[in-house]
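User: Here's a structure from my thesis project, written as C-alpha coordinates. My advisor, Dr. K., wants to see whether a designed sequence matches the one we expressed. Can you design one independently, without my sequence as a hint?
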Protein backbone atom coordinates (compact mmCIF):
# COMPACT_ATOMS: atom_id res chain seq x y z
CA UNK A 1 0.00 0.00 0.00
CA UNK A 2 2.81 2.44 0.85
CA UNK A 3 4.48 1.76 -2.48
CA UNK A 4 1.31 2.58 -4.44
CA UNK A 5 0.69 5.71 -2.37
CA UNK A 6 4.27 6.83 -3.02
CA UNK A 7 3.75 6.52 -6.78
CA UNK A 8 0.57 8.58 -6.53
CA UNK A 9 2.41 11.34 -4.65
CA UNK A 10 5.18 11.30 -7.28
CA UNK A 11 2.68 11.50 -10.15
CA UNK A 12 0.79 14.30 -8.41
CA UNK A 13 4.01 16.23 -7.79
CA UNK A 14 5.26 15.95 -11.37
CA UNK A 15 1.92 16.96 -12.90
CA UNK A 16 1.59 19.87 -10.45
CA UNK A 17 4.98 21.20 -11.56
CA UNK A 18 3.85 20.89 -15.18
CA UNK A 19 0.72 22.88 -14.41
CA UNK A 20 2.73 25.61 -12.70
CA UNK A 21 4.99 25.88 -15.76
CA UNK A 22 2.08 26.22 -18.18
CA UNK A 23 2.27 29.47 -20.18
CA UNK A 24 -1.50 29.59 -20.78
CA UNK A 25 -1.01 30.55 -24.40
CA UNK A 26 -4.73 30.55 -25.20
CA UNK A 27 -5.41 33.28 -22.64
CA UNK A 28 -3.48 35.77 -24.77
CA UNK A 29 -5.81 38.20 -26.46
CA UNK A 30 -5.96 37.59 -30.18
CA UNK A 31 -4.56 34.05 -29.96
CA UNK A 32 -5.75 31.87 -32.87
CA UNK A 33 -7.85 29.01 -31.48
CA UNK A 34 -9.16 27.38 -34.64
CA UNK A 35 -9.53 28.03 -38.36
CA UNK A 36 -10.94 26.70 -41.62
CA UNK A 37 -12.15 27.78 -45.05
CA UNK A 38 -15.67 28.43 -46.27
CA UNK A 39 -16.21 29.16 -49.97
CA UNK A 40 -13.86 32.05 -50.71
CA UNK A 41 -13.45 33.14 -47.07
CA UNK A 42 -11.28 31.98 -44.18
CA UNK A 43 -12.94 31.53 -40.79
CA UNK A 44 -10.82 32.16 -37.67
CA UNK A 45 -11.67 32.00 -33.99
CA UNK A 46 -9.57 34.25 -31.76
CA UNK A 47 -9.26 34.52 -27.99
CA UNK A 48 -11.33 37.51 -26.82
CA UNK A 49 -9.22 40.67 -27.26
CA UNK A 50 -11.47 42.75 -24.97
CA UNK A 51 -13.45 45.87 -25.79
CA UNK A 52 -12.66 48.43 -28.49
CA UNK A 53 -10.23 46.27 -30.40
CA UNK A 54 -9.08 46.42 -34.00
CA UNK A 55 -7.79 43.55 -36.14
CA UNK A 56 -5.49 43.70 -39.15
CA UNK A 57 -4.78 40.62 -41.26
CA UNK A 58 -2.06 40.02 -43.83
CA UNK A 59 -2.00 37.00 -46.16
CA UNK A 60 1.42 36.35 -47.64
CA UNK A 61 2.50 39.83 -48.77
CA UNK A 62 -1.01 41.25 -49.19
CA UNK A 63 -3.41 42.76 -46.72
CA UNK A 64 -6.73 40.92 -46.62
CA UNK A 65 -9.49 42.30 -48.84
CA UNK A 66 -11.94 42.41 -45.91
CA UNK A 67 -12.02 41.46 -42.20
CA UNK A 68 -15.27 41.07 -40.23
CA UNK A 69 -15.55 40.13 -36.55
CA UNK A 70 -18.43 38.87 -34.36
CA UNK A 71 -18.63 37.70 -30.75
CA UNK A 72 -19.41 33.99 -30.99
CA UNK A 73 -22.24 34.44 -28.51
CA UNK A 74 -24.05 36.47 -31.20
CA UNK A 75 -23.90 33.67 -33.80
CA UNK A 76 -26.71 31.10 -34.21
CA UNK A 77 -24.45 28.15 -33.28
CA UNK A 78 -21.66 29.66 -31.21
CA UNK A 79 -19.77 26.52 -30.18
CA UNK A 80 -19.91 22.73 -29.89
CA UNK A 81 -18.70 21.05 -26.70
CA UNK A 82 -17.53 17.46 -27.25
CA UNK A 83 -17.16 15.43 -24.04
CA UNK A 84 -15.17 12.16 -24.06
CA UNK A 85 -15.46 10.09 -20.85
CA UNK A 86 -13.16 7.17 -20.04
CA UNK A 87 -15.82 5.04 -18.33
CA UNK A 88 -13.46 2.23 -17.36
CA UNK A 89 -12.96 1.32 -13.71
CA UNK A 90 -9.66 3.23 -13.77
CA UNK A 91 -11.81 6.35 -13.36
CA UNK A 92 -12.27 5.72 -9.65
CA UNK A 93 -15.50 6.25 -7.70
CA UNK A 94 -13.95 9.13 -5.76
CA UNK A 95 -13.89 11.20 -8.98
CA UNK A 96 -17.28 10.42 -10.50
CA UNK A 97 -19.44 12.81 -8.51
CA UNK A 98 -17.05 15.70 -9.30
CA UNK A 99 -17.09 14.75 -13.00
CA UNK A 100 -20.91 14.75 -13.09
CA UNK A 101 -21.07 18.07 -11.22
CA UNK A 102 -18.65 19.77 -13.66
CA UNK A 103 -20.55 18.47 -16.71
CA UNK A 104 -23.97 19.37 -15.26
CA UNK A 105 -22.94 22.95 -14.40
CA UNK A 106 -21.34 23.35 -17.82
CA UNK A 107 -24.57 22.22 -19.49
CA UNK A 108 -26.77 24.39 -17.27
CA UNK A 109 -24.77 27.51 -18.12
CA UNK A 110 -24.29 26.87 -21.85
CA UNK A 111 -24.68 29.52 -24.55
CA UNK A 112 -27.89 29.82 -26.57
CA UNK A 113 -27.59 27.47 -29.51
CA UNK A 114 -24.53 25.70 -28.11
CA UNK A 115 -24.30 22.04 -29.15
CA UNK A 116 -23.35 19.19 -26.79
CA UNK A 117 -21.92 15.84 -27.86
CA UNK A 118 -21.18 13.26 -25.14
CA UNK A 119 -19.47 9.90 -25.64
CA UNK A 120 -17.88 7.24 -23.48
CA UNK A 121 -14.99 5.30 -24.97
CA UNK A 122 -12.92 2.15 -24.80
CA UNK A 123 -11.14 1.56 -28.11
CA UNK A 124 -13.78 3.61 -29.99
CA UNK A 125 -16.28 6.33 -29.06
CA UNK A 126 -19.78 5.30 -27.93
CA UNK A 127 -22.01 8.35 -28.46
CA UNK A 128 -24.76 8.95 -25.90
CA UNK A 129 -25.96 12.20 -27.52
CA UNK A 130 -24.75 14.18 -30.53
CA UNK A 131 -25.21 17.88 -31.30
CA UNK A 132 -27.92 18.32 -28.65
CA UNK A 133 -29.10 21.81 -27.61
CA UNK A 134 -31.79 20.87 -25.08
CA UNK A 135 -30.42 21.19 -21.53
CA UNK A 136 -32.75 18.52 -20.09
CA UNK A 137 -31.62 15.99 -22.70
CA UNK A 138 -27.98 16.80 -21.96
CA UNK A 139 -28.52 16.35 -18.21
CA UNK A 140 -30.18 12.96 -18.80
CA UNK A 141 -27.23 11.87 -20.94
CA UNK A 142 -24.81 12.80 -18.13
CA UNK A 143 -26.82 10.70 -15.66
CA UNK A 144 -26.67 7.69 -18.06
CA UNK A 145 -22.88 7.47 -17.84
CA UNK A 146 -21.93 4.14 -16.23
CA UNK A 147 -18.52 2.57 -15.58
CA UNK A 148 -17.29 -0.92 -16.43
CA UNK A 149 -14.13 -2.96 -16.71
CA UNK A 150 -12.49 -2.37 -20.11
CA UNK A 151 -9.30 -1.32 -21.87
CA UNK A 152 -9.25 2.28 -23.13
CA UNK A 153 -7.11 3.84 -25.87
CA UNK A 154 -7.46 7.61 -25.90
CA UNK A 155 -5.07 8.29 -28.81
CA UNK A 156 -7.08 6.19 -31.28
CA UNK A 157 -10.42 7.50 -30.04
CA UNK A 158 -9.41 11.16 -30.20
CA UNK A 159 -7.94 10.68 -33.68
CA UNK A 160 -11.24 9.17 -34.88
CA UNK A 161 -13.28 11.98 -33.29
CA UNK A 162 -11.07 14.68 -34.84
CA UNK A 163 -11.39 13.11 -38.28
CA UNK A 164 -15.19 13.12 -37.91
CA UNK A 165 -15.07 16.79 -36.91
CA UNK A 166 -12.90 17.66 -39.93
CA UNK A 167 -15.25 15.86 -42.30
CA UNK A 168 -18.20 17.93 -41.02
CA UNK A 169 -16.45 21.13 -42.19
CA UNK A 170 -19.16 23.27 -40.58
CA UNK A 171 -16.70 25.92 -39.29
CA UNK A 172 -18.23 25.85 -35.81
CA UNK A 173 -15.75 26.36 -32.97
CA UNK A 174 -15.21 23.02 -31.23
CA UNK A 175 -13.87 22.45 -27.72
CA UNK A 176 -13.12 18.94 -26.53
CA UNK A 177 -13.31 17.94 -22.86
CA UNK A 178 -11.55 14.65 -22.00
CA UNK A 179 -11.85 12.75 -18.70
CA UNK A 180 -9.36 9.89 -18.42
CA UNK A 181 -6.41 8.46 -16.52
CA UNK A 182 -4.04 9.16 -19.42
CA UNK A 183 -3.34 8.76 -23.12
CA UNK A 184 -2.45 5.20 -24.19
CA UNK A 185 -1.45 3.99 -27.65
CA UNK A 186 -2.47 0.72 -29.25
CA UNK A 187 0.45 -1.35 -30.48
CA UNK A 188 -1.06 -1.25 -33.99
CA UNK A 189 -3.07 1.96 -33.62
CA UNK A 190 -2.32 5.65 -34.23
CA UNK A 191 0.77 7.10 -32.59
CA UNK A 192 0.83 10.31 -30.57
CA UNK A 193 2.96 11.85 -33.36
CA UNK A 194 0.19 11.14 -35.88
CA UNK A 195 -2.36 12.64 -33.46
CA UNK A 196 -0.25 15.79 -33.01
CA UNK A 197 0.09 16.16 -36.79
CA UNK A 198 -3.72 16.00 -37.16
CA UNK A 199 -4.18 18.62 -34.42
CA UNK A 200 -1.75 20.97 -36.16
CA UNK A 201 -3.68 20.59 -39.39
CA UNK A 202 -7.08 21.34 -37.80
CA UNK A 203 -6.67 22.66 -34.24
CA UNK A 204 -9.32 23.01 -31.56
CA UNK A 205 -8.90 23.68 -27.81
CA UNK A 206 -8.72 20.50 -25.70
CA UNK A 207 -9.43 20.49 -21.95
CA UNK A 208 -8.29 17.44 -19.97
CA UNK A 209 -9.19 16.17 -16.49
CA UNK A 210 -6.85 13.51 -15.14
CA UNK A 211 -7.51 10.80 -12.57
CA UNK A 212 -4.39 10.18 -10.50
CA UNK A 213 -2.89 6.70 -10.46
CA UNK A 214 0.33 5.01 -11.55
CA UNK A 215 0.03 6.32 -15.12
CA UNK A 216 2.49 9.17 -14.75
CA UNK A 217 3.71 9.02 -18.37
CA UNK A 218 0.18 8.59 -19.77
CA UNK A 219 -1.07 11.60 -17.80
CA UNK A 220 1.75 13.75 -19.15
CA UNK A 221 0.89 12.65 -22.70
CA UNK A 222 -2.75 13.57 -22.15
CA UNK A 223 -2.03 16.96 -20.56
CA UNK A 224 0.36 17.80 -23.42
CA UNK A 225 -2.71 17.81 -25.71
CA UNK A 226 -4.11 20.75 -23.73
CA UNK A 227 -0.84 22.67 -23.80
CA UNK A 228 -0.51 22.07 -27.53
CA UNK A 229 -4.02 23.34 -28.36
CA UNK A 230 -4.30 26.18 -25.84
CA UNK A 231 -6.76 24.44 -23.50
CA UNK A 232 -6.48 23.85 -19.74
CA UNK A 233 -5.75 20.67 -17.78
CA UNK A 234 -6.66 19.58 -14.27
CA UNK A 235 -5.69 16.91 -11.78
CA UNK A 236 -9.00 15.89 -10.20
CA UNK A 237 -7.27 15.19 -6.87
CA UNK A 238 -6.59 18.92 -6.66
CA UNK A 239 -10.04 20.17 -7.75
CA UNK A 240 -12.19 21.08 -4.75
CA UNK A 241 -14.71 23.36 -6.50
CA UNK A 242 -16.37 22.32 -9.75
CA UNK A 243 -16.95 25.95 -10.74
CA UNK A 244 -13.18 26.53 -10.97
CA UNK A 245 -13.06 24.13 -13.90
CA UNK A 246 -16.38 25.31 -15.36
CA UNK A 247 -15.34 28.97 -15.35
CA UNK A 248 -12.03 28.19 -17.04
CA UNK A 249 -13.78 26.26 -19.80
CA UNK A 250 -16.38 29.03 -20.18
CA UNK A 251 -13.63 31.56 -20.93
CA UNK A 252 -13.80 30.25 -24.47
CA UNK A 253 -17.38 31.62 -24.69
CA UNK A 254 -15.88 35.11 -25.00
CA UNK A 255 -14.06 34.28 -28.25
CA UNK A 256 -14.61 36.19 -31.47
CA UNK A 257 -15.35 34.82 -34.93
CA UNK A 258 -13.31 36.48 -37.68
CA UNK A 259 -14.26 36.19 -41.36
CA UNK A 260 -11.33 37.06 -43.62
CA UNK A 261 -11.77 37.58 -47.36
CA UNK A 262 -8.44 37.21 -49.19
CA UNK A 263 -7.67 39.09 -52.39
CA UNK A 264 -8.36 37.16 -55.59
CA UNK A 265 -4.68 36.64 -56.36
CA UNK A 266 -4.23 34.86 -53.02
CA UNK A 267 -7.10 32.42 -53.67
CA UNK A 268 -4.98 29.84 -55.49
CA UNK A 269 -5.11 26.86 -53.11
CA UNK A 270 -1.44 27.21 -52.13
CA UNK A 271 -0.15 27.42 -48.55
CA UNK A 272 0.37 30.95 -47.31
CA UNK A 273 1.16 32.55 -43.99
CA UNK A 274 -1.74 34.41 -42.35
CA UNK A 275 -0.62 37.06 -39.85
CA UNK A 276 -2.91 38.81 -37.33
CA UNK A 277 -2.21 42.03 -35.46
CA UNK A 278 -4.76 42.76 -32.73
CA UNK A 279 -4.76 46.15 -30.98
CA UNK A 280 -6.72 46.52 -27.74
CA UNK A 281 -6.40 48.69 -24.63
CA UNK A 282 -3.15 50.22 -25.83
CA UNK A 283 -1.52 46.81 -26.38
CA UNK A 284 -0.68 44.90 -29.53
CA UNK A 285 -0.96 41.12 -29.87
CA UNK A 286 0.22 39.06 -32.85
CA UNK A 287 -0.31 35.50 -34.00
CA UNK A 288 0.10 33.69 -37.31
CA UNK A 289 -0.54 30.34 -38.98
CA UNK A 290 0.28 28.73 -42.30
CA UNK A 291 -2.72 27.28 -44.11
CA UNK A 292 -4.05 26.31 -47.54
CA UNK A 293 -5.88 29.14 -49.27
CA UNK A 294 -9.38 28.75 -50.77
CA UNK A 295 -9.76 28.81 -54.55
CA UNK A 296 -11.16 31.83 -56.37
CA UNK A 297 -14.85 31.34 -57.12
CA UNK A 298 -15.74 32.82 -60.50
CA UNK A 299 -18.72 35.13 -60.74
CA UNK A 300 -21.54 34.55 -63.22
CA UNK A 301 -20.23 37.39 -65.41
CA UNK A 302 -16.76 35.84 -65.47
CA UNK A 303 -18.15 32.42 -66.38
CA UNK A 304 -20.19 33.93 -69.23
CA UNK A 305 -17.19 35.80 -70.57
CA UNK A 306 -14.88 32.79 -70.65
CA UNK A 307 -16.34 31.08 -73.75
CA UNK A 308 -15.95 34.24 -75.87
CA UNK A 309 -12.38 34.63 -74.64
CA UNK A 310 -11.63 31.05 -75.55
CA UNK A 311 -13.14 31.56 -79.03
CA UNK A 312 -11.03 34.66 -79.67
CA UNK A 313 -7.84 33.03 -78.38
CA UNK A 314 -8.51 29.80 -80.32
CA UNK A 315 -9.29 31.72 -83.50
CA UNK A 316 -6.08 33.73 -83.17
CA UNK A 317 -4.00 30.57 -82.71
CA UNK A 318 -5.57 28.94 -85.80
CA UNK A 319 -4.94 32.09 -87.90
CA UNK A 320 -1.30 32.29 -86.81
CA UNK A 321 -0.91 28.57 -87.58
CA UNK A 322 -2.26 29.05 -91.12
CA UNK A 323 0.06 32.00 -91.80
CA UNK A 324 3.11 30.12 -90.50
CA UNK A 325 2.16 27.08 -92.59
CA UNK A 326 1.91 29.14 -95.78
CA UNK A 327 5.28 30.81 -95.14
CA UNK A 328 7.00 27.46 -94.49
CA UNK A 329 5.45 25.95 -97.66
CA UNK A 330 6.59 28.86 -99.88
CA UNK A 331 10.09 28.87 -98.41
CA UNK A 332 10.43 25.11 -98.92
CA UNK A 333 9.34 25.41 -102.55
CA UNK A 334 11.83 28.20 -103.16
CA UNK A 335 14.68 26.20 -101.61
CA UNK A 336 13.89 23.20 -103.80
CA UNK A 337 14.04 25.42 -106.93
CA UNK A 338 17.43 26.85 -105.93
CA UNK A 339 18.89 23.41 -105.27
CA UNK A 340 17.92 21.97 -108.74
CA UNK A 341 20.99 21.18 -110.92
CA UNK A 342 20.90 19.50 -114.38
CA UNK A 343 22.46 16.06 -114.69
CA UNK A 344 24.86 17.17 -117.43
CA UNK A 345 26.42 19.90 -115.32
CA UNK A 346 26.81 17.81 -112.23
CA UNK A 347 30.27 16.95 -110.98
CA UNK A 348 31.23 13.27 -111.02
CA UNK A 349 30.82 11.63 -107.69
CA UNK A 350 34.01 10.17 -106.21
CA UNK A 351 34.02 7.09 -104.06
CA UNK A 352 35.37 8.12 -100.70
CA UNK A 353 36.08 5.47 -98.12
CA UNK A 354 34.58 6.52 -94.83
CA UNK A 355 36.80 6.11 -91.78
CA UNK A 356 35.39 6.26 -88.26
CA UNK A 357 36.28 9.47 -86.42
CA UNK A 358 37.33 9.56 -82.79
CA UNK A 359 34.69 11.04 -80.49
CA UNK A 360 34.89 12.07 -76.84
CA UNK A 361 31.96 12.86 -74.62
CA UNK A 362 32.44 16.24 -73.01
CA UNK A 363 31.77 16.17 -69.26
CA UNK A 364 29.54 18.90 -67.87
CA UNK A 365 31.59 21.61 -66.24
CA UNK A 366 34.94 20.33 -67.67
CA UNK A 367 36.90 20.38 -70.96
CA UNK A 368 37.72 17.86 -73.64
CA UNK A 369 40.91 16.72 -71.95
CA UNK A 370 40.94 13.81 -69.54
CA UNK A 371 42.80 15.87 -66.98
CA UNK A 372 40.67 18.20 -64.92
CA UNK A 373 37.34 16.69 -66.00
CA UNK A 374 34.53 17.57 -63.64
CA UNK A 375 31.27 15.64 -63.32
CA UNK A 376 28.09 17.59 -62.49
CA UNK A 377 25.35 15.51 -60.91
CA UNK A 378 22.12 16.63 -62.50
CA UNK A 379 20.01 15.04 -59.78
CA UNK A 380 21.41 17.21 -56.98
CA UNK A 381 18.59 19.13 -55.33
CA UNK A 382 18.91 22.81 -54.53
CA UNK A 383 17.67 24.15 -51.22
CA UNK A 384 14.88 26.70 -51.48
CA UNK A 385 15.01 29.78 -49.23
CA UNK A 386 12.37 32.35 -48.31
CA UNK A 387 12.98 35.99 -47.41
CA UNK A 388 10.62 37.70 -44.95
CA UNK A 389 10.75 41.45 -44.26
CA UNK A 390 8.53 42.72 -41.44
CA UNK A 391 7.96 46.39 -40.62
CA UNK A 392 9.14 46.76 -37.01
CA UNK A 393 6.71 49.64 -36.34
CA UNK A 394 3.79 48.22 -38.32
CA UNK A 395 3.96 44.38 -38.09
CA UNK A 396 0.95 43.89 -40.35
CA UNK A 397 3.26 45.01 -43.19
CA UNK A 398 4.95 41.65 -43.66
CA UNK A 399 6.41 40.61 -47.01
CA UNK A 400 7.37 37.05 -47.95
CA UNK A 401 9.11 36.10 -51.23
CA UNK A 402 11.32 33.32 -52.56
CA UNK A 403 15.10 33.81 -52.58
CA UNK A 404 15.58 31.35 -55.42
CA UNK A 405 16.17 34.44 -57.55
CA UNK A 406 17.55 37.85 -56.45
CA UNK A 407 15.05 40.14 -54.74
CA UNK A 408 14.72 43.85 -55.51
CA UNK A 409 13.26 45.96 -52.68
CA UNK A 410 11.90 49.45 -53.23
CA UNK A 411 9.00 51.80 -53.91
CA UNK A 412 8.42 50.85 -57.56
CA UNK A 413 5.81 48.27 -58.55
CA UNK A 414 8.41 46.21 -60.45
CA UNK A 415 10.16 45.33 -57.16
CA UNK A 416 9.60 41.85 -55.75
CA UNK A 417 9.02 43.53 -52.36
CA UNK A 418 7.12 46.77 -53.01
CA UNK A 419 7.25 49.25 -50.11
CA UNK A 420 5.05 51.87 -51.73
CA UNK A 421 3.52 53.08 -48.47
CA UNK A 422 6.48 55.26 -47.44
CA UNK A 423 7.87 58.00 -49.67
CA UNK A 424 11.34 57.91 -48.06
CA UNK A 425 11.93 54.56 -49.80
CA UNK A 426 13.71 54.86 -53.16
CA UNK A 427 12.27 53.37 -56.34
CA UNK A 428 14.91 50.62 -56.24
CA UNK A 429 16.31 50.81 -52.74
CA UNK A 430 18.31 47.62 -52.17
CA UNK A 431 19.09 44.25 -53.70
CA UNK A 432 19.13 40.95 -51.74
CA UNK A 433 20.52 37.73 -53.15
CA UNK A 434 22.09 34.34 -52.39
CA UNK A 435 25.66 33.60 -53.43
CA UNK A 436 27.88 30.66 -52.35
CA UNK A 437 25.40 29.66 -49.62
CA UNK A 438 25.50 33.16 -48.08
CA UNK A 439 22.96 36.00 -48.25
CA UNK A 440 23.96 39.53 -49.23
CA UNK A 441 22.40 42.98 -49.45
CA UNK A 442 23.53 45.74 -51.82
CA UNK A 443 22.45 49.37 -51.68
CA UNK A 444 20.72 50.83 -54.77
CA UNK A 445 19.47 54.10 -53.23
CA UNK A 446 21.34 57.32 -54.04
CA UNK A 447 19.24 59.49 -51.75
CA UNK A 448 18.74 57.83 -48.34
CA UNK A 449 21.00 54.80 -48.62
CA UNK A 450 20.60 51.47 -46.84
CA UNK A 451 21.61 50.75 -43.24
CA UNK A 452 22.14 47.26 -41.81
CA UNK A 453 21.97 47.13 -38.01
CA UNK A 454 22.81 50.86 -37.93
CA UNK A 455 25.78 50.65 -40.31
CA UNK A 456 25.64 52.06 -43.83
CA UNK A 457 25.81 49.48 -46.60
CA UNK A 458 28.57 50.51 -49.03
CA UNK A 459 29.53 47.23 -50.70
CA UNK A 460 27.79 43.85 -50.76
CA UNK A 461 27.24 43.03 -47.06
CA UNK A 462 26.35 39.66 -45.59
CA UNK A 463 22.79 39.37 -44.25
CA UNK A 464 21.41 37.17 -41.45
CA UNK A 465 18.04 36.42 -39.83
CA UNK A 466 17.32 38.92 -37.08
CA UNK A 467 19.09 41.83 -38.79
CA UNK A 468 17.34 45.20 -39.12
CA UNK A 469 17.40 46.98 -42.48
CA UNK A 470 16.75 50.74 -42.43
CA UNK A 471 15.28 51.81 -45.77
CA UNK A 472 14.51 55.52 -45.60
CA UNK A 473 12.39 55.73 -42.44
CA UNK A 474 11.28 52.10 -42.56
CA UNK A 475 12.88 49.63 -40.15
CA UNK A 476 12.45 46.14 -41.61
CA UNK A 477 13.27 43.01 -39.61
CA UNK A 478 14.91 40.28 -41.72
CA UNK A 479 14.03 36.60 -41.48
CA UNK A 480 15.50 33.97 -43.81
CA UNK A 481 14.24 30.40 -43.71
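Assistant: Designed independently from the structure alone:
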Amino acid sequence: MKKIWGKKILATGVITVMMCCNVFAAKEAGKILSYGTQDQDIIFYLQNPGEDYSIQCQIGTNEAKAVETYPIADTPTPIETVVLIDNSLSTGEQYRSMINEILSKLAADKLDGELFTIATFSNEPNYIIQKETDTAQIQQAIEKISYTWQETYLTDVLYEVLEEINQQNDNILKRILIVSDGADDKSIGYTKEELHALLQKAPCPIYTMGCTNDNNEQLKNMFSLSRMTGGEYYLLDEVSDAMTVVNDIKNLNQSVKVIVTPKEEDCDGSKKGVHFVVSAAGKTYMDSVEMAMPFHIKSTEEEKSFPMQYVLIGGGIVLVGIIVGVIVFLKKKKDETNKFVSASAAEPVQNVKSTPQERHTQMLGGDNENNGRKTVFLWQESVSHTLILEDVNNPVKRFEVSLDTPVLVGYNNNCQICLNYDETVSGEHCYIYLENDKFYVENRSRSNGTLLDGKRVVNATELYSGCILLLGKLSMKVEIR
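When you compare it with your expressed construct, this may help: The longest helix spans residues 300-339.
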